[in-house]
């Protein structure tokens, strides 16, 4: 592991090559078409069809070949034409004519950059179904999810309901990470409310007697200078802190200092959805990510692969850089309802594509190892000046 910054040319090449994703490429053409529409109504129509294609569980080419593409909800005749042209010929003359007619190639180019590195449902499922290379994380290794929200902040379900759903997915633990008080728009919780939440969690854990475990977390906001809204002494009252950016996500300038400071902030365990990007909407933070990852590796802070479909943040290509930097990872759903818990599958799929071993994934660790790692992160508050390496990685008991 490098302890100093390497020159750009010295950096290890990312392990992950780009993935061919025909469903997402087909959906992208419909998003392109949507961007060219003069009315909100027609934009909405193409976007709805695009979303349906991206969410298909089978290759879109199979549906075109079988002549049943129109059976997909919201796919109308013009969407069908564009997708069929793409599947049979590799491009869509209909879309190209529309781009030429409206004179908006620059707009289309700009929007395309906002869909780079995302996976469709079908490709995600295919990645998970492919046998993993020795040691690389699988769904069978996955014990629990470390970013989710409950009715305490902007989630729609109670902690108990989220836990029941997680148990149904075969998980053994979870981390509740409601929003902190600095994000009132997401009903971020006060410390007083957090204290009441811990009592609820203690009661649940006592009832489960070790068969399932809820860890007490918080999703703190990374402010513009990289400090957090939740203060260092407050952070230590939680078992773990996810620090995530929720502002300044459309700025073009580099925000390396902000993100490095966030990783160095005492008590941080996970850097949540590091870029803050949003599918088809915003690019998220630009930074020298290798510098951020080097700091995270040094301090044992986990880099999150946020599996929310609209986020997929960070994706497999950037994750390969974090892996090369020696980072550990958190593969989370960022669920706000029980239905969204399965977003963790996108995070696992990106990790698989990046070649991340299970032993580097906190979600695969035993409760005891998690406790130890969380304690070490809290311990960083007492001695912030001393950089720590990630704890040596041991095999997780299965
Ligand atoms: Zn967040």
Task: Write structural notes for this entry.
- There is one protein chain.
- With 398 residues, the chain is an alpha/beta fold.
- It has two domains: 22-126, Orthogonal Bundle (DNA polymerase, domain 1); 132-379, TIM Barrel, CATH 3.20.20.140.
- Helix content is 40%, strand content 9%.
- The chain has 15 helices and seven strands.
- The protein has a seven-stranded parallel sheet.
- It is globular, with a radius of gyration of 22 Å.
- 45% of the residues are buried.
- Mean pLDDT is 91; it is low at 1-13 and 382-398.
- It binds zinc ion.
- Zinc ion (ZN) binds at residues 219, 244, 246, 272-273.
- Zinc ion binds next to loops.
Sheet-strand content, in percent, reads: 5-15%
- The structure class reads alpha/beta
The third-level CATH topology of the largest domain is: TIM Barrel
Measured distance between first and last alpha carbons: 27 Å
Order of helices and strands: HHHHHHHEHEHEHEHEHEHEHH
Q: Shape, please? A: globular
Offer a concise description of the structure.
Helix content is 40%, strand content 9%.
Topology:
Layout: H1 22-35, H2 40-54, H3 60-65, H4 77-89, H5 93-102, H6 105-112, H7 121-129, E1 144-145, H8 159-168, E2 173-179, H9 191-208, E3 213-221, H10 232-235, E4 240-244, H11 256-264, E5 268-271, H12 289-299, E6 302-306, H13 316-324, E7 328-332, H14 344-354, H15 367-379
Parallel strand pairs: 1-2, 2-3, 3-4, 4-5, 5-6, 6-7
Helix pairs in contact: 1-2, 1-4, 1-6, 7-14, 11-12, 13-14
Zinc ion is lined by residues 219, 244, 246, 272-273.
């Amino acid at each position: 592991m490098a302890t100093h910054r390497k020159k750009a040319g010295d950096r290890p090449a990312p392990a992950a090559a780009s993935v061919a994703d025909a469903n997402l490429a087909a959906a992208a053409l419909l998003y392109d078409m949507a961007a060219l529409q003069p009315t909100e109504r027609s934009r909405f129509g193409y976007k709805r069809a695009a979303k349906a294609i991206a969410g298909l569980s089978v290759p879109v080419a199979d549906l075109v070949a079988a002549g049943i593409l129109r059976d997909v909800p919201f796919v109308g005749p013009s969407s069908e034409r564009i997708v069929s042209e793409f599947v049979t010929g590799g491009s869509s003359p209909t879309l190209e004519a529309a781009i030429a007619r409206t004179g908006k190639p620059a707009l289309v180019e700009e929007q395309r950059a906002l869909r780079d590195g995302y996976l469709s449902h079908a490709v995600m499922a295919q990645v998970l179904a492919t046998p993993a290379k020795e040691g690389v994380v699988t769904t069978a290794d996955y014990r629990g999810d470390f970013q989710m929200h409950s009715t305490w902040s902007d989630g729609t379900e109670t902690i108990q309901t989220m836990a029941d759903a997680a148990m149904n997915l075969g998980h053994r633990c979870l981390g509740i990470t409601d929003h902190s008080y600095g994000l009132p728009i997401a009903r971020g919780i006060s410390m007083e409310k957090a204290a009441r939440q811990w009592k609820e969690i203690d009661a649940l854990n006592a009832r489960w007697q070790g068969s399932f475990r809820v860890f007490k977390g918080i999703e703190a906001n990374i402010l513009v200078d990289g400090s957090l809204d939740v203060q260092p002494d407050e952070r230590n009252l939680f078992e773990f802190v996810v620090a995530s950016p929720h502002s300044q996500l459309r700025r073009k300038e580099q925000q390396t200092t902000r993100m490095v400071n966030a990783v160095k902030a005492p008590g941080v365990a996970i850097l949540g959805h590091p870029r803050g990007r949003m599918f088809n909407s915003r690019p998220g933070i630009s930074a020298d990510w290798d510098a951020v990852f080097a700091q995270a590796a040094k301090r044992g802070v986990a880099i999150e692969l946020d599996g929310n479909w609209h986020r997929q943040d960070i994706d497999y290509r950037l994750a390969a850089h974090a892996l090369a930097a020696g980072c550990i990872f958190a593969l989370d759903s960022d669920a706000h309802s029980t239905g969204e818990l399965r977003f963790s599958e996108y995070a696992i799929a990106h990790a698989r594509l990046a070649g991340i071993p299970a032993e580097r994934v906190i979600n695969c660790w035993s409760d005891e190892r998690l406790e130890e790692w969380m304690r070490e992160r809290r311990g960083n508050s007492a001695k912030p000046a001393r950089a720590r390496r990630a704890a040596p990685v041991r095999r997780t008991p299965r």
